[in-house]
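BUG: 3D viewer hangs when loading the predicted structure for this chain

Environment: internal workstation, default settings.
Expected: structure renders.
Actual: progress bar stalls at 90%.

Input used:
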Amino acid sequence: MTFPNFLTSLSSRVQSINPFGTPTNSPDAFDPAIADVFSVKAILQSLSLPLELADTIIDFAQYWPHTSTVLTGINPAYAQGKALEDYFIARTLPLGCLPSSPSTDPSRAPATSRGRTTPHPFPPSQSDASKKATAALYSAWAQASQPREAHPCRKIVFRFRSRDQGWGGDHKDRGTYNGSFTWLDVGKERVRVVDDNESEILEKSMKLPQPEAQRSEGDVEKTFAWNLESIDPPPKEGGVPKWSQAGLDLGDMPMPTVELEHPFLPHDKTLQKNRTATNDEKDYTIVWRWDDDIDAESDDAEELQKTGRGKATGNGEFVRSLEVGDVVTLWARARFPGWFITVKDVEIDMFWAV
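Structure tokens produced before the viewer hung:
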């Protein structure tokens, strides 16, 4: 048996392993927890396989834990040209943060929102105290979720149902992805802890103690409140919030706001365009993997474009760039009067290697 065939055979067995006897959702698949992966890794190493080969087999089987963000279709996302052109749909948990983490408590996590969203106005430079607290929070999350150090995120699966307004556009483009001005984009945010001084500037009442060496990981997750910086889409040029503490104290200066630089038209990193002037909804399942390697200038990229995806979405770059503390966001966009997009039944699954 050649080595690739050996991997295929063994990884298919790994995919169906359920070490703790938990009922599976289907006879062909099992969604492993972190403990399941470590159990399988121990089994493989008991066969005298080196750790590197055990990890390779687990990766080949895509035997990874994941978190899910699910939005039902009861209240669909709705972007409309010239009215609400950029509609924020959803965000994942930060990579490394488990749903059971105390960090997800509403008293510590940022409020969830849909539609119009206003980024948190962090000061232009991050204080040393905030940097240390943020690093401590990342460490606590990593202690619980056990991600590998290099390229921890391995796969993101986007599922949704969408359509445009069902009319308009050039007649020749109808039913195709050409000439479409409604689409979905993927963004990225990064977690940042706000320290005492920043809290005062931003009129926050919570006092955040500084991280100490003796504080346990669990204490860190129960202590620090955090918010999110938008990496993509980025803040507008010159849009860094400016204020003075004196102005805030006197009440004669409004709280600063951050405006984001949204793309005007579909682009090479677009997740998915809608079929032009097509009233029927379509279900999409799009998978981004860390080892995708489609060059944006290749024939394969042209095939992606024909299906409504951006030419640069098949190279794995976005997934490989994610680190502990990064958040994946989803946006709906519509341009020009009369164009709108409706998005329902959104689910985002983010997988990481342990």
